[in-house]
């Protein structure tokens, strides 16, 4: 036995093997060394069994275990060895070595051969695969290695036969028609129940007929095309998933798409299904698509440009269209294959592979291709997809359905499956909704108009959002729902057309949002511009469309709406506003922003259309009205639909621009008609503008208070009748504000305005800022016009008073809104620092309310009734805390000159508390009774045939008001007695503690400086209150009250007051001076009144003796001279404001001052100079005051030194002559009328026209008036009256159809006496006709009425003309300037109250 030698070391083999694995080429020198080493190991292993075992172990340790995955299952033809990796090369080298040893030891019975077989069995197949062994070794070796060698030999023969003798096939159906037929039949019967059977049978057919699996897979896809849209498509998906290998699937689909010339719709649907299921990657299929992306981009831009130009040309009429060559925007159409990718996206959406489709859409848009614009089916597919995924959430959030019997057949729904990764999942919660819906909504709203074509889906989404908003959403959910509403749903309604249901559904969501959020949504809806101006410039230039640009369908809808709106507005009139209003509401549904931009533009130019347009808004939807409130806010802010910010002042810098004035009026009228529309936005805007020191916007508040709140805001000088009305209760104030013409006030609008103003962030800031800016406007206004600054100051003062009065009606709500008195004054850290007159304007209603409730509780307590808690107890006067606040309002040294009790009493009382206008109550009660009698009499005489229900309601209102006025008078009289009792009770505490000497030194100055002057400038009521309060203290004989000293200091301070006051303050000052001077003049010229009212009182006592009448006359004369000196200097001043203020003050006291005729003559001369002034407003005021002063002179207002009435003898003579001529003329007309009436008898006779009498002599004091009347012309001699012609229908008297016709009188007042006489009752004693207003109609008027007589038609025209002459330039508003014959200051009318009654009669008749 030969000696055994050891094997090569395992370490050397491992080292060499590692070096071989790292070599770059498998055929390098390392392979030779490795083959040599393999041979040595195997050869040594054959020497003994131990070495054989050891050698096998070494090889297994070094080479490792064979990995079947590394073997290529389908090697290329002719390749016998796997050389894909160095390891496989090493195995091939080892196999070759074993084959070489088998050839060296061919004898099967030899030990080396047996040991070789043992080595092979040890290495196969754990280290060397069978395929390598079978390929290399001989059959003798393989026979010993393979268990079933006979089967292997048969297979080997078959393979060799197939390789050598079998005919090559080309995978055609005809090559194996039976197998493919059976497969096709099998697929045609496929359903969900036999998927497993079909899959198993298919594999059997493939094996039996030796079919190509890829061809079978292609056949399965062909069958799948016919079932792709049915519910059976899932069965095919399951079968396809059963194939062992689907690597050929994308290639088969790619070939189908390429062979179909652009791909059929069903084939694309298959692709979508497979991509959704993850069986095919979209990138693999896309490689077979011949898509020209640049061509698609060019086509997209071309279509956008063409569509943009078509929108721009809407409504444009070309007069030379035949000769104008339009720009030809064409490009070669791209083939359908280029749209294959777009169609594929549509199929992906259709089968709910949405997330894959979304990535494709974003990729195309990043390349500048508007995929959804080019392929609308993508957006429509998204809509259908959203219908399905939203259904679970919609069913849970929608209102319960009522059982109405058999339900209709449900709409068919497409079969959509859901993939966990590539599909949109069913939405069941609100959080899923808000996180999923945003991107799909962008595609169907901003990128297309598909949602607008699906109103059902639109309403579904709106209802889901409404459900979410009503159920306390989280902050994140709320923000996303707000984005959905603002960015997608609200703009979408522009393309929905006139669809009221969608508009109301959207409003049900928006109404749940704060108005600030809604206005932000409307801003986003509007964008930067509207209509044609919003067409994207990039689209017009053929460069695509921007991300933030409006959609073209959206713009097109705006343009069409604008054209329709302008067509309606051109034809709107008072005759068709109802019909056009319905059409306007229809147009407004899709684009309210466009409609209201057009309307507001017309209103700003034509303010006479405001009422008409507001009336036509009756049928507008709530959404449209809310949008209008936003548009109004934008407009008053200076913005417009076509321009930027605008100047709110005219070029003169004094008055508000016309557009601003028109908007103010429109806002008032609109909110009066529609009080439910959002108002807080405009009010908050005004508050913010006040913070920016802008006062012009207060005109909006004024319009709202006037129109919506029914508050009449007087400007300038008001009449004594109106002032008396303001001193009474609410009913009297209403009846006297507009001279008895009571406007219909909507209680709903008043309540809504009061609620809006009572908001914490509106009411109090508006009050406080108005008061604060009043002082700042003098220094912070940029304009140099003093008149404008003064007007703004007056506006702030008036609005502050009106707001406080309006809000204080609801005491509880007002008390919650108003802070404490100390905070108003500014004694706390967060104090507001308001002036005393402002503080008490705000606090006075609460102080009065607390006092009244305290007294009511005292009365209830005394009578044993149950008392109610006083919620206003904190404002009750006399409390220590309040007195401390009062003392902090003024410097400490002031309180040594005035008591807290007097200060509190003065500032806490109102004019209502200390003055009862009984005469005004009686006058209004009498007027209402006469009006009721007149209307009822006319009704009974059948003169008002159309006595409508509205007329009956007016009569009932007047009767009810008559009774209510009586109750109101009794209530005020009782309250007046209570207040005066308190004053008399507390009068000793006013000045008793100060001492007479201290009072005489400083009281008058302190009282006027800190009480009278601040308050009298605040309002007409406060001015009247100051005058009456001074007289009340004087009349109640308040201890130490120096009445004569107070009046004297008041007159001395007049010069400073006039020359530093605004126009409104001058009017208030004139009102107070009128009251004061009326009392002083009464004492001057009525000795008995002086003795009773002045001399006997303590205030006129000097050293214990009353001031003698002669001394008072001297003091009166000095006061008169001083006042006139101040006024005369003001009229001659070179300062514009001084002249206006002086004229306003003089106009207010024209009937009481001047009293001296010398001063009056000087006044006429001074004013006559101003009548030629170049400044038109000064000229108008001078003309008005000149007429008023002349009328006062003629009425006997001027006095002589001895106290007698001064009269102009020449004027009196002319007046008497004029009255005489007028009386003769009246008698002549009366005689003619009697003759005509007495001559009309006989049945069936026809009258004849009588000759005209001679014309009357001219009136006046000239010479021609003294001549005899001229004779009548010869052509028309005066004859006896004859029968009238048959054509005349104005017959009087006589039976049958006859009678005499009335002839017109010869005067310019044609037919006055005749027609008026027939309407008036005949005075039996005097034989004269009297008008219903009282007084002889034929007797000449006297006093100032005669001076202003221009016409005699019951004071209608005459009242108007004289009213203008009296009040022009005094800033009295138009309703007062007409005159009513009742007021002082020259408000004219014939017959006293006659003009006013006729005015009311015309008003009532116009309503019936």
From TrEMBL:
Annotated ranges, domain THO complex subunitTHOC2 C-terminal = 895-1189
Quote the subcellular location field of this record.
Answer: Nucleus
Please note every region of biased composition (Low complexity): 1260-1291
One GO cellular component term noted in the UniProt record for this chain = THO complex part of transcription export complex
Keywords in UniProt for this one? Nucleus
Q: Where is the THO complex subunit 2 N-terminal domain?
A: 29-242, 442-581
Q: Where is the composition biased (Gly residues)?
A: 1238-1247, 1384-1393
What terms describe the molecular function in GO for this protein? mRNA binding
- Residues of the region (Disordered) are 1220-1408
Q: Basic and acidic residues bias located where?
A: 1220-1235, 1351-1383, 1397-1408
> Any idea where the THO complex subunitTHOC2 N-terminal domain is?
584-663
Q: Name one GO biological process term.
A: mRNA export from nucleus
Q: Name one Pfam family in it.
A: Thoc2
InterPro entries for this protein: Tho2, THO_THOC2_C, THO_THOC2_N, THOC2_N
Q: Which PANTHER family match?
A: THO COMPLEX SUBUNIT 2, THO2 PROTEIN
Q: Which family does it belong to?
A: Belongs to the THOC2 family.
Q: Any idea what this protein is called?
A: THO complex subunit 2
């Amino acid at each position: 036995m030969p000696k055994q030698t050891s094997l090569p070391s395992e370490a050397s083999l491992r080292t060499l093997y590692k070096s071989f694995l790292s070599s770059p080429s498998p055929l390098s020198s390392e392979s030779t060394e490795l083959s040599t080493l393999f041979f040595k190991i195997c050869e040594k292993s054959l020497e003994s069994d131990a070495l054989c075992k050891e050698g096998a172990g070494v090889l297994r340790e070094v080479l490792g275990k064979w990995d079947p995955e590394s073997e290529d299952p389908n090697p290329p033809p002719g390749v016998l060895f796997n050389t894909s990796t160095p390891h496989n090369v090493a195995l091939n080298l080892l196999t070759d070595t074993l084959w070489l040893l088998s050839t060296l030891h061919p004898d099967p019975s030899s030990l080396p051969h047996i040991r070789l077989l043992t080595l092979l069995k040890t290495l196969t197949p754990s280290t060397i695969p069978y395929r390598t062994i079978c390929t290399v070794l001989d059959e003798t070796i393989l026979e010993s290695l393979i268990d079933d060698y006979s089967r292997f030999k048969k297979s080997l023969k078959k393979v060799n036969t197939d390789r050598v003798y079998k005919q090559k096939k080309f995978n055609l159906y005809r090559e194996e028609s039976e197998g493919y037929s059976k497969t096709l039949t099998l697929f045609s019967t496929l359903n969900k129940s036999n998927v497993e059977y079909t899959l198993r049978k298919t594999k059997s057919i493939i094996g039996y007929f030796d079919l190509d699996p890829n061809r079978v897979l292609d056949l399965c896809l062909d069958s799948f095309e016919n079932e792709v849209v049915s519910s059976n498509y899932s069965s095919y998906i399951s079968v396809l998933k059963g194939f062992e290998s689907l690597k050929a699937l994308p290639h088969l689909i790619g070939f189908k798409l390429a062979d179909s010339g652009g791909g059929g719709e069903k084939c694309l649907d298959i692709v979508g299904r497979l991509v959704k299921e993850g069986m095919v990657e979209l990138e693999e299929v896309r490689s077979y698509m011949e898509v020209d992306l640049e061509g698609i981009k060019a086509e997209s831009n071309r279509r956008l440009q063409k569509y943009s130009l078509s929108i721009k040309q809407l409504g444009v009429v070309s007069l030379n269209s035949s000769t104008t060559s339009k720009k030809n925007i064409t490009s070669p159409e791209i083939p359908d294959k280029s749209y294959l990718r777009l169609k594929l996206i549509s199929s992906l959406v259709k089968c709910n592979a949405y997330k894959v489709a979304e990535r494709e859409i974003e990729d195309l848009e990043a390349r500048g291709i508007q995929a959804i614009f080019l392929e609308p089916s993508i957006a429509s597919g998204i809509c259908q997809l959203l219908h399905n995924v939203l259904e679970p959430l919609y069913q849970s959030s929608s209102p319960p359905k009522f059982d109405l019997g058999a339900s209709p057949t449900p709409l068919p729904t497409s079969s959509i499956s859901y993939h966990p990764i590539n599909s949109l999942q069913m939405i069941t919660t609100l959080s899923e909704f808000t996180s999923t819906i945003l991107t799909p909504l962008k595609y169907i709203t901003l990128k297309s108009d598909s949602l607008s074509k699906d109103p059902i889906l639109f309403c579904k989404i709106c209802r889901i959002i409404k459900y979410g908003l009503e159920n306390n959403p989280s902050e994140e959910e709320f923000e996303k729902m707000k984005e959905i509403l603002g960015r997608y749903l609200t703009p979408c309604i522009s393309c929905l057309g006139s669809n009221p249901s969608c508009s109301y559904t959207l409003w049900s969501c928006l109404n749940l949002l704060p108005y600030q959020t809604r206005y932000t949504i409307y801003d986003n809806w509007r964008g930067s511009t509207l209509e044609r101006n919003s067409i994207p410039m990039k689209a017009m230039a053929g460069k695509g469309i921007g991300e933030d640009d409006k959609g073209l369908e959206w713009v097109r809808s705006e343009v069409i709406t604008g054209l329709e709106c302008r067509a309606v507005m051109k034809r709107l009139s008072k005759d068709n506003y109802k019909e056009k209003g319905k059409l306007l509401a229809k147009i407004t549904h899709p684009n309210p922003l466009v409609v209201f931009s057009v309307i507001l533009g017309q209103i700003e130019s034509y303010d006479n259309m405001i009422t008409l347009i507001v009336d036509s808004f009756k049928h507008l939807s709530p959404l449209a009205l809310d949008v209008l409130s936003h548009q109004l806010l934008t407009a008053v802010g200076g913005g417009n639909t076509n321009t930027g910010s605008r100047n709110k002042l005219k070029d003169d810098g004094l008055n508000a621009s016309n557009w601003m004035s028109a908007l103010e009026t429109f806002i008032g009228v609109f909110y009066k008609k529609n009080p439910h529309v959002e108002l807080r936005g405009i009010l908050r805007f005004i508050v913010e503008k006040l913070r920016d020191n802008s006062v012009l916007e207060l005109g909006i508040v004024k319009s709202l208070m006037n129109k919506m709140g029914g508050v009449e805001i007087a400007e300038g000088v008001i009449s004594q009748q109106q002032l008396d009305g303001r001193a009474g209760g609410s009913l009297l104030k209403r009846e006297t504000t507009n001279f008895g013409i009571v406007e219909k006030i909507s209680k709903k609008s008043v309540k809504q305005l009061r609620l809006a103003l009572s908001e914490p962030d509106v009411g109090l800031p508006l009050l406080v800022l108005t008061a604060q800016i009043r002082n700042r406007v003098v220094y912070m206004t940029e304009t140099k016009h003093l008149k404008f600054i003064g007007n703004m100051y007056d506006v702030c003062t008036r609005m502050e008073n009106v707001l406080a009065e309006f809000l204080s009606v609801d005491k509880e709500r007002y008390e919650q809104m108003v802070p404490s008195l100390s905070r108003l004054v500014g004694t706390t850290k967060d104090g507001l620092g308001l002036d005393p007159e402002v503080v008490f304007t705000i606090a006075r209603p609460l102080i009065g309310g607390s006092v009244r409730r305290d007294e009511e509780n005292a009365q209830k307590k005394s009578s044993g009734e149950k008392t109610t808690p006083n919620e206003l107890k904190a404002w009750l006067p006399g409390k220590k805390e309040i007195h401390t606040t009062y003392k902090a309002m003024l410097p400490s040294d002031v309180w040594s000159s005035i008591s807290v009790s007097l200060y509190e009493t003065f500032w806490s009382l109102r004019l209502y508390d200390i003055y009862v206008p009984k005469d005004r109550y009686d006058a209004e009660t009498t007027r209402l009774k006469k009006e009721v009698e007149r209307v009822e009499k006319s009704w009974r005489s059948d003169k008002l045939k159309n006595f409508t229900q509205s007329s009956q309601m007016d009569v009932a209102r007047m009767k009810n008001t008559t009774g209510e006025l009586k109750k109101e008078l009794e209530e005020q009289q009782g309250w007046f007695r209570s207040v005066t009792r308190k004053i008399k009770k507390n009068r000793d505490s006013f000045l008793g503690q100060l001492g007479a000497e201290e009072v005489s030194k400083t009281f008058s100055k302190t009282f006027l400086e800190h009480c009278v002057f601040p308050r009298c400038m605040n309002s007409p009521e406060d001015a009247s209150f100051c005058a009456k309060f001074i007289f009340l203290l004087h009349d109640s004989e308040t201890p130490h009250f120096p009445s004569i000293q107070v009046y004297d200091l008041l007159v001395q301070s007049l010069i400073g007051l006039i020359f530093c006051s605004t126009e409104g303050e001058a009017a208030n000052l004139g009102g107070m001076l009128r009251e004061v001077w009326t009392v002083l003049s009464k004492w001057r010229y009525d000795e008995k009144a002086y003795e009773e009212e002045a001399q006997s009182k303590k205030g006129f006592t000097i050293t214990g003796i009353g001031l003698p009448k002669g001394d008072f006359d001297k003091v009166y004369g000095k006061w008169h001279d001083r006042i006139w000196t101040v006024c005369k200097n003001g009229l001659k001043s070179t300062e514009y404001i001084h002249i206006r203020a002086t004229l306003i003050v003089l106009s207010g006291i024209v009937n009481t001052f001047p009293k001296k005729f010398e001063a009056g003559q000087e006044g006429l001369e001074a004013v006559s100079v101003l009548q030629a002034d170049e400044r038109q407003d000064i000229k108008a005021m001078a003309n008005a005051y000149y007429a008023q002063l002349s009328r006062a002179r003629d009425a006997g207002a001027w006095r002589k030194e001895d106290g007698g009435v001064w009269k102009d003898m020449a004027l009196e003579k002319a007046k008497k002559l004029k009255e005489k001529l007028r009386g003769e003329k009246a008698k002549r007309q009366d005689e003619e009328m009697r003759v005509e009436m007495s001559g009309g008898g006989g049945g069936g006779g026809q009258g004849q026209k009588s000759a005209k009498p001679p014309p009357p002599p001219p009136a006046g004091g000239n010479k021609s008036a003294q001549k005899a009347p001229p004779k009548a012309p010869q052509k028309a001699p005066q004859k006896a009256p004859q029968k009238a012609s048959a054509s005349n229908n104005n017959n009087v008297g006589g039976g049958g159809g006859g009678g005499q016709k009335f002839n017109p009188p010869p005067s310019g007042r044609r037919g006055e006496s005749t027609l008026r006489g027939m309407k008036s009752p005949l005075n039996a004693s005097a034989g004269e006709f009297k008008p219903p207003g009282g007084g002889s109609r034929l007797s000449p008027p006297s006093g100032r009425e005669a001076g202003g007589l221009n016409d005699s038609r019951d004071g209608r025209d005459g009242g108007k003309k004289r009213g203008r002459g009296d009040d022009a330039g005094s800033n009295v508003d138009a309703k007062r300037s007409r005159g009513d014959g009742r007021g002082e200051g020259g408000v004219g009318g014939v017959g006293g109250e006659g003009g006013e009654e006729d005015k009311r009669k015309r008003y009532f008749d116009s309503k019936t």
